[in-house]
Amino acid sequence: MNERFGGVNVSEYLVTGNEYVSLPTIRQRDGAIEGLSFLHMGAKGMIELCGSAGLPLMKPFAEINGLGIPDGGLRWERLNSWVPRFSGEYGGCRLEGTLLAPIGERGFGYRLVLSAGADDVDYRLGLSGCWARALHSVNESKPIEAEKHAYCSGWNHSFVMDMRPGLSLFAFAPIFTENRDGCPVRDWFDKRGDEIHYSIERTGRLGADESVELCVWFGLGFEEVAASTSAKEMLRQGWDAELQKTLGWLKERERTVGDEKLDETLNLNMFFSYFFGGGLTLDTEEFVLVTSRSPRYYVSAAYWDRDSLLWSFPAILMADSETAAEMLRYVFTRQIRNIGIHSRFIDGTLLEPGFELDELCAPVIALGMYVEKTGDRAILAEDCVRRGIDRILKFLRTKRSLKVALYETFLQPTDDMRSYPYICYDNVLVWYMLRKIDELFPGDWQGLADEAAHVRAAIMEHCVKEKDGKPMFAWSVDLDGGWDVYDEPPGSLLMLPHYGFCGMDDEIWKNTAEVIRRKDYPYSFADCPIAEIGCPHAPHPWVLSISNSLLSDKKEDARRHLALCSMDNGIACESVDEYTGESRTGDAFATCAGFLAYAIDNAFGGRKRVIT
Q1: What would the mean pLDDT of 1-20 be, rounded to a whole number?
Q2: Whole-angstrom distance, CA of residue 446 vs CA of residue 570
C-alpha cells in the first residue's frame, strides 16, 4: 500500500501517550504497537517493553467468515490532535480501532469495533502479541537481564506480566469486560523460552448491521497489584468517560493560527512535546524532563537544560502553566547541582560532562518567560529558585574573561566542540539573563545591570567583524584576532532580535543573516526547495532553523518550507532532506517539537481555539 496520512507514507509511526506511558511506535499499516515506554527514577531513565523481530508487543486482528483481514488500507485520524483512531473496510464489514492513554491514568486502552454490513458474518476479533524484551534506555537501549514472568492474578480476571530482578521492577496487566451481549472474551498466555505470547479475543456471529466491541485496558505499576488495579480503574471508569475526559483536556489546550494545516502541525507538536518531553516516573511518581520519551530519538530519556527550557518550555507554557511551573521547580531542585553541564540523568546526576554557556542561562530565560506570561511572582520567593539563581551567577563568574566582559563556553549549542571560546549567541544569552535577573529580583544581586551593559559593549567590540566590506556578527572569537563565519540552528545568530539584542532592521544583523543564508555558505541550502540552515552535526536543513526563521525575518519563507516537510510523520525531527522534506536525522525530537509549535504560534498570532 502507498496510502498517505498527513502527507506521510503509512509505513511510518503514529504516537500517543500520557503522563505515565508512551506509545512511540504505533504502526500505521496495521495498528500494531511495537513497544511502550515509561520513565523510571530507579533506572535513572526509561524502560521499554518490546516485541520480537517478527511479532510486535501488541497487534489487533480480525477474521470474517474465517478469513483474516490483511494489513494495509487503514485510514487514520487524530482526535483533538492527539488520540489516534483508524478505520478500514473488509469483506463488507467495517473495523475501527482507537488507542487511548487517558489523562491521569497509569496505562492505556485499545478499543476495537467490528460492524457487519448487509450480511450475517462469523467473526473473531482481538489483540495478540509477544513480550520479548525489556530495555533500559538512556541515549542507548540495552536489554535488562532478568526473567520475565506471566501468571494468573487474583487482582484481575486476566493475567499479569512482570520483571523481578530481586525485587519487582515493574508489572504490566490487561483487563477487559468478561461477558458482553452473551459473547465471552477469552484470553491465554504462554511462555516460550524467554518470550511471553498472549491473546485476548472475542468470537461469535454478527447479524446484518450489528456491531461488536472489544475494549482492553493495560495497566502499569511497580508490581502486580498496582498494575492490575490501574487497569481495573480505567475499566470501572469506562471507555466513554475516559475518552471524554481526555478529549476535554486536549480541547481546552488546542490552539489556532487560522490556518488548518499549520494548526495541525502546531497542536500535534505541542502535545508531543508535552507528553514526550517530560512525565511522571513509574516508581516514585516524580515529574521529570527529558529530550524525548521515544527510543527512536537518538539521545532519548536524558535531560538537557537547553532542550527542555529554551525549546520545550515555551510550548508547555502555552498549553498548561501549572506544568510549566513544575518544570521550573524540577530544574531548580533535581537538576540545579549540575546546571550548565552538557547532559544529566533524570535524577540530576552527571551523564555527559562539558560546560555549555547557553544551558547555564536557560533556567533564568524560562523563569522570566513564565513570570511574564502568568504574572505569578510568588515562584520568585521560593527558596530553591533564589538559591538556584545564586548558584548560576557564581558559576557564571568562573567563565568570565580576565580581560573583557565576555564569557567562554566549552561546547557549542550542538554539544560539539567550539572553535573559539567566546560564542556571540551565548554571550547575548548572558546579556539577556543578567538583565532578566535584575528585573525579576531588583536590588537582590548588585551590579547585574552594569555587567549586562559591559557584555553588550564587549560583544559589539569583539564579536563584530568585517566580511566583504560589511560588518557582521562573528559566530565565535578569541581575543587574539581569531574568529569564524558559522551558525548553528540550536543556537542561531538569527535569534538575536528575538532576545531583544537588536532589531531586525539592524544593519549588522541583516548582513549576518545574509551571509549565512547565501549560496556560498556551505550549510545554507540556498538553492534547495527547503532553504534552511544546517551544520556539520547534521548536514541538512534543521527543523530548528525553520523555527528560527519563523521567529525572525523570514516567517513566510519558513511557512513555505514547513509546508514541504513531512518530517517524522508530522512530528519535528532534527533535520530534513533539503529536497523531499522527509526526516534525515533525529526522529521523534520532543523538545524540538515544542519549539516548532511555539514558533508557529508566535509568528502567526496563535490563540486558544474557541470551545463550543
Answers
A1: 63
A2: 47
